[in-house]
């Protein structure tokens, strides 16, 4: 089943993380904590009640360049995948974006008539608002729809294709913010703080892009499967 995938259930969890530290984010969104010693992926998942196939489907999808993971879709546990996506939303909205905002205020000079600093914060707040709207819609409408679909309740005629058509890339505006800072912020002297927040923005941008890819290429096809089975 995992022949074409990079990581397998028998790999040590520590190997995965040391091989690709961005997978730390995936682990914590599956509610897996550190301190697993030499245990394998399968052992760590089993002990924590996490669906190992779903965990590996996400992990292997994230490290792939290609956007096709049709084979893994059938192995996905929808409750596990949705809980993973919800945790990711919680992370972006309640930790990642507020941290970037705090660091931005610390790094840019908001005291005087610094128009660019003011614009950067305004732009950031608008952006964070858009991300919240995007994720709230998924939490409230899309996930509720899938839960209803799974339990055979009324779904109000909604189909996942309606969501897939309008699912926009929320990382694009962050790219603009990054460009404003890089191109126009009149930095003077020591830029350690500003560089640190730029690093955070770059990494949040990548994280958001891969979150959207998981939704488009794992979540949506898995919901389509459920819709077909329900017919
Ligand atoms: Fe999302
Ligand atoms: Fe999304």
From TrEMBL:
The source organism is Phocaeicola sartorii
Q: Which InterPro entries match?
A: Hemerythrin-like, RIC_family
Give the superkingdom in one word: Bacteria
A Pfam family (short name) is Hemerythrin
| Gene Ontology CC, one term | cytoplasm
Localization of this protein: Cytoplasm
Q: Name one GO molecular function term.
A: metal ion binding
- Protein name per the record: Hemerythrin domain-containing protein
Alphabetized UniProt keyword annotations: Cytoplasm, Iron, Metal-binding
Query: Where would I find the Hemerythrin-like domain in this sequence?
Result: 83-222
């Amino acid at each position: 089943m995992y022949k074409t995938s990079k990581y397998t259930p028998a790999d040590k969890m520590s190997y995965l993380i040391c091989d690709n530290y961005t997978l730390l984010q995936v682990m914590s969104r599956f509610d897996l904590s550190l301190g697993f010693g030499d245990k394998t992926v399968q052992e760590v998942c089993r002990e924590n009640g996490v669906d190992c196939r779903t965990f590996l489907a996400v992990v292997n999808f994230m490290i792939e360049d290609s956007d096709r993971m049709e084979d893994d879709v059938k192995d996905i546990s929808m409750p596990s995948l949705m809980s993973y996506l919800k945790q990711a939303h919680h992370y972006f909205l309640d930790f990642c974006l507020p941290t970037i905002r705090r660091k931005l205020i610390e790094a840019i000079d908001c005291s005087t008539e610094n128009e660019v600093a003011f614009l950067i914060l305004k732009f950031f707040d608008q952006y964070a608002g858009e991300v919240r709207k995007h994720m709230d819609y998924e939490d409230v409408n899309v996930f509720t729809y899938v839960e209803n679909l799974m339990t055979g309740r009324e779904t109000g005629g909604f189909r996942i294709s309606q969501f897939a058509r309008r699912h926009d890339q929320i990382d694009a505006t962050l790219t603009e913010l990054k460009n404003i800072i890089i191109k126009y912020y009149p930095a003077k002297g020591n830029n350690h703080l500003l560089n640190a927040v730029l690093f955070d923005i770059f990494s949040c941008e990548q994280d958001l892009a891969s979150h959207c890819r998981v939704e488009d290429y794992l979540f949506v096809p898995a919901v389509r499967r459920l819709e077909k089975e329900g017919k």
